[in-house]
Amino acid sequence: MESLDLRVLGDALAWRRAGHAVTLVTVVETWGSAPRPPGALLAVRDDGVVSGSVSGGCVEDDLIARVKSGERNAVPSMIAYGVTKDEAARFGLPCGGTLRLVQEPLRETGWVEELLARTATHELVARTLVLATGRVTLSAATRDQGMRFDGLELTTLFGPKWRMLLVGAGQLSQAVAQMALLLDFEVLVCDPREEYSNTLAVTGARHVPGMPDDVVREMRPDAHTAIVALTHDPKLDDMALMEALRSDAFYVGALGSSRNQATRKERLAQHFGLTQEELQRLHGPVGLRIGAKTPAEIAVSILGEIVECKNPAAQAVRQAPGCVVS
User: Scanning 56, 101, 180, 188, which has the fewest C-beta atoms within 10 Å of its C-beta?
Assistant: First the structure.
């Protein structure tokens, strides 16, 4: 499954190839309880068809009306919604929210084709737009970058900023992989057992050959990486956890009951020399306590806990044990 913004660009490219005029709209600043974050992307076709979103719907309606009325801009321009309380209410922006947007005509499509090709190979790409001219340049990005806008240039990121390594390719791992892809994670799956790895059938997830400890070392987990051990085989899970708990990964979890986790921590301490501080980072039993029983429900609980660790807003409410967020 592609990320939402990449689907927007894919739709915009298809529309331009079919001869339509297309306007791209990017959220660049928000105040109050704006529905969509900075960087959110919308494409509006000349007949009013849209892909993506920049708000809860009312702003889109106004943008569609502008395009259908024939409004066109030769170069990118700024537009704001919800500057006043009355206007915020008119456009459905809660709590006096305000949106500042950059709208740009999509004329050249070469950069779209290149960006889609590069992100298809799991590359994180920065796109920089010069508002005065509409010129677009692409460059390699790093996971510590974010969207930048100084009034003159807008830089947004495309591709998977967050990574998830799943140790195990069984039914549960495949359910987690499918949901993680929807959340814009780059999903890597490691399982040296041929009877499992050969059955991995999740479009977008990438199989990584090798033993789990080697794979974790080679991927160099950073503060945007989550690692989840799901094989239920201590020989494989423990090897991954041995390296993961010493890394900068913001989340490390393992499948198993509370009793199994206690035994696991004893093994990791006795045989691999992990410290109590490192062991405290382990989420186990993995996932939120929601009474999950089926693979899909367990996957929801795992992704819920990972999102809780990933998002600073959730951390401000409740610091989950083992979360390390930059």
Answer: 56
Written as six digits, the tokens of 149 are: 């806008």
| Statement to judge: residues 193 and 207 lie in one domain | yes
Asked whether the beta carbons of 142 and 164 are under 8 A apart, the reply is no
pLDDT tens-digit readout, 246-288 = 999 999 999 999 999 999 999 999 988 999 999 999 999 999 9
How many domains in the chain?
2
Structure tokens, 32 = 């109050």
Q: What residue ranges in the chain does DSSP mark as E strands? A: 22-31, 41-45, 50-52, 77-81, 98-105, 125-130, 136-140, 148-149, 153-158, 162-167, 185-190, 206-207, 225-229, 251-254, 282-283
Domain of residue 122 covers: 4-158
Q: Helices H, strands E: what count in the chain? A: 12, 15
Q: Do 83 and 213 have their domain in common?
A: no
Same domain, 170 and 279: yes
